[in-house]
């Protein structure tokens, strides 16, 4: 492992940023498919040159791109995401039934073992799987057909399935998160699902401790401790130590615990990173100061990380897909902003530098250690 | 018959073509036939002009030919003779976006 490749999805194209292990100088490649939105790009853990990308556009719809050479060239693969059977309805904002309608792919999660197998999380919330490198997609409809499915309703950004986690010790154990249905786990490869929301509390719900309806923004997991999950909810930072069966609030000393991203240090499973945002009505950092918060104790005790980050007049947001870590010896932490900056810390969050400052609004950041 | 088509920037980029494209259409020259020919020649464009579920024109696209807005004509309606003869192109246009 001697370098990193950062895959950046933006509102107006995809970018691939390359550096060596020092992570001081960067090559910002040319924009890929300029003008198209890239909600997510992710490389296969089994073959880093295999990258999948979700390309969409309100005018022209959804496309999936696949690269087999680390993003040098791309091939458009199948982009038909057809719900299994008659889709039925979910709940609309006003409480009325609304037909399930495919809008876009929010997240692509390649298999940990097979570069040709990849999961896709879509809006309206559903999980699809391809075992032929994106040539065809099949819905794992047990999720959408869960007994609560007709009660799911969208958040302001749409009813999106945005998080997919695969347990590295048991590839049949999958986790997904949906705004604003909540979080679900499958122990049988996606055939059946159960809500994993015990301990979540959302004041905006008629029943704050309800089984579904929580606006989960992101879930993260360290590969060495698959039973432990960290969650950034609409408000609240949470953790579970039993595969999501129960959750505890770990916001601790945070001044605000609203936010979107959450991630775990590559080598320290109790070191967690978040970027708190002022509030759900004001999607920018508190006091105009861009601060990453790090907990080295698995939550509750958080320290602000500010060196190299703007500490005044900063009003950007950091969206849910826009943080990742590398696995070099000195763990690198990366995040992108709606202001077009991509920041890197090569020392576990102690100091930060902007890799690039003026991209289109950044939607997703994924890092490959190569 | 060879039909000329002007694609919007995003679709030219997706299909990796520059400028106007030409496709062979057999039978009646209609928008459906032209789009079928485009999809066959450039499979990456499939679903970008017609909604894949409804097979209708995507709502933010418009079709023009011979200085006429064809957007609300049935997709199986014949296109003007000048298009069928290759003298005029069919124009696929994305709705303008403000900002």
Give a description of the structure.
Chain A has 370 residues and is mainly β. Chain A has one domain (3-369): Methylamine Dehydrogenase, Chain H (7 Propeller). Helices cover 0% and strands 40% of the residues of chain A. Chain A is built from no helices and 30 strands. Chain A has strands spanning 3-10, 13-20, 27-28, 37-43, 51-57, 61-67, 75-77, 89-91, 97-99, 104-110, 118-123, 126-130, 138-139, 160-166, 174-179, 182-186, 194-195, 216-221, 229-233, 237-240, 248-249, 258-264, 272-277, 292-295, 303-305, 323-325, 333-336, 342-345, 353-356, 362-369. In chain A, the strands form eight sheets. In chain A, strands 3-2-1-30 form a four-stranded antiparallel beta sheet, with no helix packed on it. Chain A has a four-stranded antiparallel beta sheet with strand order 4-5-6-7, with no helix packed on it. A five-stranded mixed beta sheet of chain B has the order 2-1-5-3-4, covered by helices on one side. Chain B starts with a strand and ends in a 5-residue tail after the last strand. Chain B has a single domain, classed as Beta-grasp domain (Ubiquitin-like (UB roll)), CATH 3.10.20. Chain B has three helices and five strands, in the order βαβαββαβ. Chain B has 99 residues and is α+β, with helices and mostly antiparallel strands. Chain A binds chain B through residues 33-36, 57-63, 76, 79-80, 102, and chain B through 8-11, 13-14, 43-44, 46-49, 51-53, 58, 60-61, 94-95.
What are the SSEs and their pairings?
The complex is a heterodimer of chains A (370) and B (99).
Chain A: E1 3-10, E2 13-20, E3 27-28, E4 37-43, E5 51-57, E6 61-67, E7 75-77, E8 89-91, E9 97-99, E10 104-110, E11 118-123, E12 126-130, E13 138-139, E14 160-166, E15 174-179, E16 182-186, E17 194-195, E18 216-221, E19 229-233, E20 237-240, E21 248-249, E22 258-264, E23 272-277, E24 292-295, E25 303-305, E26 323-325, E27 333-336, E28 342-345, E29 353-356, E30 362-369
Antiparallel strand pairs in A: 1-2, 1-30, 2-3, 4-5, 5-6, 6-7, 8-9, 10-11, 11-12, 12-13, 14-15, 15-16, 16-17, 18-19, 19-20, 20-21, 22-23, 23-24, 24-25, 26-27, 27-28, 28-29
Chain B: E1 2-6, H1 9-15, E2 21-24, H2 31-41, E3 61-65, E4 68-69, H3 81-84, E5 90-94
Parallel strand pairs in B: 1-5
Antiparallel strand pairs in B: 1-2, 3-4, 3-5
């Amino acid at each position: 492992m001697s370098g990193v490749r950062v895959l950046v999805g933006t509102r107006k194209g995809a970018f691939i940023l390359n550096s060596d292990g020092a992570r001081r100088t960067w090559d910002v490649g040319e924009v890929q498919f300029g003008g198209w939105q890239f909600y997510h790009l992710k490389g296969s853990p089994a073959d880093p040159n295999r990258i999948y990308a979700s390309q969409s556009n309100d005018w022209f719809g959804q496309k999936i791109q696949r690269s087999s050479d680390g993003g040098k060239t791309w091939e458009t693969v199948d982009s038909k995401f057809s719900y299994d059977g008659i889709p039925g309805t979910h709940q609309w904002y006003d409480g009325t039934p609304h037909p399930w309608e495919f809008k876009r792919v929010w997240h692509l999660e390649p298999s940990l073992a097979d570069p040709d197998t990849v999961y896709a999380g879509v809006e309206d919330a559903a999980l699809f799987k391809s075992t032929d490198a994106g040539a065809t997609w099949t819905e794992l409809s047990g999720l959408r057909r869960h007994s609560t499915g007709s009660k799911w309703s969208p958040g302001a950004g749409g009813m999106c399935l945005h998080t997919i986690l695969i347990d590295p010790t048991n590839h049949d154990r999958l986790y997904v998160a949906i705004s604003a249905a909540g979080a679900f786990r499958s122990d049988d490869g996606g055939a059946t699902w159960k809500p994993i929301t015990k301990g979540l509390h959302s004041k905006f719900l008629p029943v704050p401790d309800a089984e579904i309806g929580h606006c989960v923004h992101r879930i993260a997991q360290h590969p060495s401790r698959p039973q432990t999950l960290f969650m950034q909810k609409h408000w609240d930072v949470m953790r579970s130590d039993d595969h999501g069966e129960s959750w505890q609030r770990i916001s601790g000393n945070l001044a605000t615990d609203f936010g979107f991203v959450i991630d775990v240090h590559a080598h320290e499973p109790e070191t967690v990173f978040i970027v708190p945002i002022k509030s759900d009505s004001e999607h920018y950092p508190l006091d105009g100061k861009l601060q990453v918060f790090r907990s080295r104790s698995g939550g509750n005790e958080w320290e602000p990380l500010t060196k190299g980050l703007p500490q005044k007049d900063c009003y950007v947001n950091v969206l849910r897909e826009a943080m990742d870590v590398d696995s070099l010896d000195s763990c690198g932490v990366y995040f992108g902003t709606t202001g077009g900056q991509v920041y890197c810390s090569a020392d576990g969050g102690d100091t930060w530098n902007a890799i690039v400052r003026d991209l289109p609004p950044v939607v997703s950041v994924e890092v490959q250690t190569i | 018959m060879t039909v000329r088509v002007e694609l919007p920037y995003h679709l030219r980029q997706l299909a990796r073509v520059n400028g106007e494209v030409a496709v062979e259409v057999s039978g009646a020259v209609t928008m459906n036939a032209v789009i079928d020919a485009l999809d066959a020649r450039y499979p990456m464009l499939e679903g970008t002009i017609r909604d894949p579920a409804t097979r209708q024109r995507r709502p933010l696209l418009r079709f023009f030919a011979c200085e006429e807005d064809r957007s609300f004509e049935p997709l199986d309606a014949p296109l003007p003779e000048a298009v069928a003869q290759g003298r005029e192109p069919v124009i696929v246009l994305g709705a303008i976006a403000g900002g």
